[in-house]
Amino acid sequence: MILTGAKEQLFTTEIRQQLDEWVAKYPAGQSQSAVIPCLHILQAESEGWLPESVMDALAEYLGMPAISVYEVATFYTMFDLKPVGKHKFNVCTNISCMLNGSEQVVEHLESRLNVKLGETTDDGEITLREVECLGACCGAPMMQVDRDYHEYLTVDKLDAILDGIKS
Ligand code: FES
User: Fold this and answer.
1) Of the residues 91, 99, 133, which should be mutated to test ligand 1's pocket, given the most ligand atoms within 8 Å of the CB?
2) 22 and 93 fall within a common domain
3) What is the distance in A from the centroid of ligand 1 to the CA of 137?
4) Euclidean distance between the first and final Cα of the chain, in Å?
5) 69 near 38, Cβ under 8 Å?
6) What CATH number corresponds to the domain at position 93?
7) Strand 126-131 and strand 87-92: pairing?
8) pLDDT tens for residues 70-79?
9) Does some domain include residue 42?
10) Which terminus of the chain is more solvent-facing, meaning fewer CB atoms within 10 Å of its CB: N or C?
């Protein structure tokens, strides 16, 4: 529970402390500049995704229109607007990764996880997604697992990553 329900105290004390640390990094009156790190904090506290009520509360907290928070949250693939698995597998299928075998990466993960792109495993552990270039083209094919990048992917590497998550 990260929302208090009280308008004057939108978030719990612990969450407010984290948000305020970021707001303090910007000049007075520029609280909205902290929207991205604040969304990261709130997403981490909301089981990996951002309910509308949380984005609305952040808009009020930062003194910005809710639509502006939605614009940021919907633009970046690092933010999720619906429930996701405990771990997020973001496979890049853009040009460098495509030319270096991202299709095989996707096929292997779909087969091992028994899901299609955009789906979450039955146990709620892993959400598999296709994303645009993640800026690590020299390590193609690559994917991001939560906050970590994995490059030069092979079937063996994928199996090791999956086994590591299971254990
Ligand atoms: S094309 Fe995959 S990281 Fe750039």
Assistant:
1) 133
2) no
3) 4
4) 28
5) no
6) 3.40.30.10
7) parallel
8) 999 999 988 9
9) yes
10) C
